[in-house]
Amino acid sequence: IMLLTDPEVESSLLISSDEGATYQKYRLSFYILSLLFHPEQEDWILAYSHDQKLYSSVEFGRRWQLVHERVAPNRFYWSKSGLDKEPGLVHLETIISEGQALYVTCKLQNCTEANKGKPFPGYIDPNSLVVQDEYVFVQVSTGGRPIYYVSAKREVFTPMKLPKYTLPKDLHVISTDENRVVAAVQEWNQNDTYNLYVSETGGVFYTLALENVVSSMGHEGNVMIDLYEVAGIKGMFLANKKMDNVPYCSLHLHLHVSANPYTSGNIESKDSAPGIIVASGSIGAELTTSNVSMFITSDAGNTWRQIFDEEYSVLYLDQGGALDEFRRGETVE
Predict the structure, then answer these.
(1) Contact, 182 vs 198, CB < 8 A?
(2) What does the pLDDT look like over 220-270, one tens digit per residue?
(3) What are the C-alpha distances in Å from 6 to residues 57, 134, 246, 262, 322?
(4) pLDDT band per the 50, 70, 90 thresholds, residue 329
(5) In Å, what is the CA distance from 299 to each residue of 116, 227, 296?
(6) Residue 115 DSSP SS3
(7) Are 309 and 295 in contact (CB under 8 A)?
């Protein structure tokens, strides 16, 4: 168990090796903004600091070593077994200037200039590196027009090819499940919607899957796309599509998930209960935040029925055989 102290008081970690019975304090020389645990090596951790430095620990936070400076926030990734040559390799985006960044790979315990890899030949746009499953994505803007590149299975980078006459101004990778890429693309004539495209296994060639998916801006200026990947069923998505003249009897669902894995969001599904989805929403001509009810489906979204007239949080029990629901704000004992 690892606990972080309040950085306004002190910068320390509290670590327990006996399931919380006792803790030992380890003082830090930096302030942690985020942590990234290795998917296989439970003692390996990456820590990102307030001054754009990336640190690593192979002793579950008891000792730390500087990996790299001027690292872009949330643009660092662990290597993937079977694809990368070494388990202790880190993929990261380094900041060069206001409009330029580099994609480099680095050895965890020996990140010297001689040991750095540069898989992409040249600068990339800031905050564009995405390493997900067997794919790596970067963006390079030329003359104000973005060009999106993909590398599959750590091979050479290739420009992503959307259908003819598609002019993208923004692109977000949604999913890389089932050896294909699902990407949300905002085209030159779109402002509050995105189109969904699906690739072949190489992630290079794309076909249009769904138009005009609703989008909005989050509290931190990030793009929020009304799209939900159903747990337990690979490749299954629910999306809010912008349409005109919708019948008044239409069902509209809120698709925002909770950032906290221990709390319920507006919509919930579980790997252990494939096909069962519980969501809040409303019946009418448009999606609203008032008069919200709860709805359930047991066939992955094909048919729905209303279960409550107000919003509830949901807990899945007994592999989905039972659901525990309680009003928002109530205490569960």
Answers:
(1) yes
(2) 778 889 999 998 888 889 999 998 888 888 888 988 765 555 555 588 898
(3) 20, 37, 49, 21, 38
(4) low
(5) 49, 18, 9
(6) helix
(7) no
Q: Scan for tokens 């077994």, then name that residue.
A: 81
- Dihedrals φ, ψ of 239, to 5°? -140, 145
As a whole number of angstroms, the longest Cα–Cα distance in the chain is: 64
Q: Which domain holds residue 288?
A: 231-333
Closest alpha carbon to 103 in 84, 85, 90, 87? 90
Confirm whether 150 is domain-assigned.
no
Chain mean position to CA 202:
21
Position 319, amino acid: Q
The set of long-range contacts for 17-26, using a CB threshold of 8 Å and a minimum separation of 24, is: 26/61, 26/62
Q: What share of residues in the chain are helix, strand, coil (percent, to 5)? A: 5, 50, 50
CA separation (Å) from 280 to 47, 187, 236, 312, 321? 36, 30, 19, 8, 20
Residue 96 lies in a domain: yes
- Provide the number of structural domains found in the chain: 2
> Band of the pLDDT at 309, cuts 50, 70, 90?
confident
Burial label for 127, CB within 10 Å (0-12, 13-18, 19+), is middle
In-domain check, residue 138: no
* Neighbour count for residue 229 (Cβ, 10 Å): 17
Find the mean pLDDT for residues 281-295. 86
Tokens representing residue 196 in the block: 């969904």
Give the helix/strand (H/E) hosting 225: strand 223-225
**What secondary structure letter does DSSP report for 310?**
S
With 60 as the cut, is the pLDDT of residue 330 above it? no
Return the structure tokens found at 69: 């400076």
**Rounded CA Rg of the chain:** 22
Q: Give the residue from 79, 95, 121 where a domain finishes.
A: 121
Whether 131 and 115 have beta carbons less than 8 Å apart is answered as no
